[in-house]
Design a protein that fits this description.
Elements lengths: L2 E6 L6 H4 L5 E4 L1 E5 L2 E5 L7 H9 L4 E4 L3 H13 L3 E4 L9 H15 L5 E3 L6 H16 L4 H11 L3 E6 L3 H6 L5 H9 L2 E7 L5 E8 L1 H15 L8 E5 L3 H14 L6 E5 L2 H7 L4 E6 L4
Parallel strand pairs: 1-2, 1-6, 6-7, 11-12
Antiparallel strand pairs: 3-4, 3-5, 8-9, 8-13, 9-10, 11-13
């Protein structure tokens, strides 16, 4: 049976990548800014600089999860066509979209018990989810079945490393991940946190370094320490309106790991960026379990 990979826009995969794939769909997500709701879709990364300019200008953005009905409509259209669904939503430790997808699956199976719909928690975010999807697509291209691919995700999702650094601590404060006092003192001392996604799929602090360059070098240090060539040895890097810093991290990795595989760089979209803030740089690769 042919099957689709269904993920969401928080994978931060760009239009050029998505449109080159077969049977891949990324669910749009909504964000609200200045009282107006926007739908963020594939291709909107080309306008992300406008979004970050508004954030830098003091505007705030909030996001909402994908609803059950939205997943249901996509699942129904695919299964009505006689094809299967492997859905890999944003980490349940970050969003409730995973729960929406599970409920939509239950509704589909209640109406059509023979339908093939699997929903697997990615425990991943941004291009970490994108990296996981990239492997899942390659597995399918090699002939892996829907069920085996779902099993592969469960067995390998914790091998996707996520390392982030942010430029403005106030975004972590607004997101509830840092106290107001810590954000204020950290900003005064030019403290730049390095964060990771843990085994529960939640974004947590790992260490604090002083200065932007040191925080970017810390990301490259993580690749040197943890990257495994077993999965191709490549890296994905995402950035929130900070392309030069993303290229700087890529250059450090190439210098330190001459045999590194492909380094893929893409912008962080508005949905992830609403929480991370402009200047965020993130590194993703496959290695030993988190």
């Amino acid at each position: 049976m042919n099957y689709w990979i269904v993920a969401d826009i928080c994978s931060d995969l760009p239009k050029t990548y998505v449109y080159a794939q077969e049977r891949l769909t990324l669910m749009p997500m909504n964000y609200t800014m200045a009282g107006r709701e926007y739908s963020y879709r594939v291709g909107d990364e080309n306008r992300s600089d406008e979004f970050y300019q508004k954030i830098r200008g003091g505007e705030k953005a909030s996001t909402s999860l994908i609803g059950i009905s939205e997943y249901y409509d996509v699942f129904k259209q695919i299964t009505d066509g006689g094809e299967g669904v492997l859905c890999v939503p944003l980490s349940s430790g970050i969003s409730g979209s995973f729960g929406s997808a599970l409920s939509a699956r239950e509704q589909i199976l209640a109406q059509k018990p023979e339908a093939k719909v699997q929903v697997v928690d990615s425990l991943a975010a941004s291009l970490g989810l994108g990296l996981l999807i990239d492997h899942v697509l390659k597995n399918r291209a090699r002939g892996m079945s829907l069920e085996d691919n779902a099993r592969w995700i469960i067995e390998n999702r914790l091998k996707v490393h996520h390392w982030f650094t942010v430029d403005d601590l106030n975004h972590l404060y607004r997101g509830g991940r840092l106290s107001r006092g810590s954000a204020l003192i950290g900003s005064m001392l030019r403290i730049k946190p390095v964060l990771q996604v843990n085994r529960e799929g939640r974004l947590v602090a790992f260490e604090k370094v002083q200065g932007r360059k040191r925080s970017l070098k810390a990301l490259a240090d993580m690749a040197l320490e943890h990257l495994s060539p077993q999965y191709g040895g490549g890296c994905f890097i995402s950035h929130a309106d900070a392309p030069e810093d993303a290229e700087y991290v890529a250059g450090l990795i190439k210098d330190r790991i001459p045999a590194v595989g492909e380094i893929f760089i893409s912008p962080i979209g508005a949905v992830v960026g609403a929480h991370a803030g402009p200047g965020t740089v993130a590194l993703f690769f496959m290695g030993e379990e988190r």
